[in-house]
Design brief:
Shape: flat
Radius of gyration: 28 Å
Low-confidence stretches: 1-13, 220-238
Structural class: mainly alpha
Number of strands: 3
Strand content: 5-15%
Distance between the termini: 64 Å
Helix content: 40-55%
Length: 304
């Protein structure tokens, strides 16, 4: 699959609402970025080939949804290159002076060495690519629902005196033909409660016949393929790109603090914790942090 890296600005009808059936490419190529860019500098493709390729391979191996829509690793690399070009045009602190100004302002700095700027921009780019590819995987999972043959099938059934011992898949296809009846959710819940009360695993309806639930999920997509859709487990990927990048940078800074704290002596840790408690005592936004600091001090038999 080839992707056009045209430098011409893509015009998008603002009123058009893109859908998975007709506009899937516009969705995963992030049209909202492309329409904001006057020119895509494709010279960056060669310069950042290492980062793009390695990040693509990691995400391709981690997420199974790309293959569900027929994407190969080469396709994901091509998509990542478009994301990379979007980043360089819109969010790079090396290329975009406004982004550098905003970055320095947030960090309360006047300037940073070029080597540090290169390192920071590289980390921001990697974070951006991971975020966008993760979201692309989400889109692929949703698209796969439309192109996979078959649909989820489920139902609650009960045996009768005319039931034939048959595979459950066949019961789903034509339960009446094999002597079963359709049961209700209420019946199933009542049978489940009764079985639990007497410590049994088999369920029976009020007539004494077995009652059971059959679920045949779409064979094309497994439950784990939808894990990228769970926002609670991947919250950073659902922020706006600039916010997500800032959160990632804050996380890296916090990791630095943790490492320095771990290298302190017990006395140095206690002084640091005590100073934190004194300065922030009564701050309702730091309740959890203050509680943890006091606990750590108490564990060291230190009273604030």
């Amino acid at each position: 699959m080839k992707h056009n890296l045209s430098t011409e600005k893509t015009t998008v009808n603002k009123k058009k609402r893109f859908n998975f059936k007709d506009d899937f490419e516009m969705l995963y190529l992030r049209h909202e970025y492309i329409k904001r860019i006057d020119k895509l500098d494709d010279s960056f493709v060669k310069k950042y080939a290492g980062i793009v390729t390695s990040t693509s391979k990691i995400m391709f191996d981690r997420l199974t949804n790309f293959e569900k829509v027929g994407f190969t690793i080469e396709d994901v690399v091509a998509i990542s290159n478009i994301y990379m070009l979007s980043y360089m045009a819109l969010y790079s602190i090396l290329v975009n002076p406004v982004e550098m100004e905003n970055f320095l302002k947030k960090k309360n700095l006047h300037s940073i060495p070029k080597e540090e700027a290169i390192r920071i921009d590289r980390n921001r780019l990697i974070s951006f690519l991971r975020q966008r590819l993760h979201h692309c995987g989400t889109l692929c999972a949703r698209k796969a629902r439309n192109i996979t043959v078959g649909a989820d099938k489920r139902g609650i059934f009960a045996e009768t005196k005319n039931s034939i011992n048959i595979a459950r898949e066949q019961i789903l296809e034509d339960y009446q033909k094999y002597g079963y009846r359709k049961a209700t959710s209420k019946e199933y819940k009542e049978a489940l409660a009764k079985a639990k009360a007497i410590g049994k695993t088999e369920l029976f309806d009020r007539f004494g016949f077995k009652i059971f639930k059959i679920e045949k999920l779409n064979d094309g997509i497994k439950e784990e393929d939808y894990r990228v859709l769970v926002e609670a487990n991947n919250s950073m990927f659902y922020h706006a790109p600039d916010v997500a990048l800032q959160l990632k940078e804050d996380e890296m800074v916090m990791e630095g603090y943790k490492k320095r704290f771990d290298l302190m002596t017990v006395e140095q840790r206690n002084k640091t914790l005590a100073r934190f408690v004194r300065r922030n005592k009564g701050d309702k936004t730091l309740k959890k942090e203050l509680r943890l600091a006091r606990k750590m001090l108490n564990d060291n038999e230190t009273v604030v």
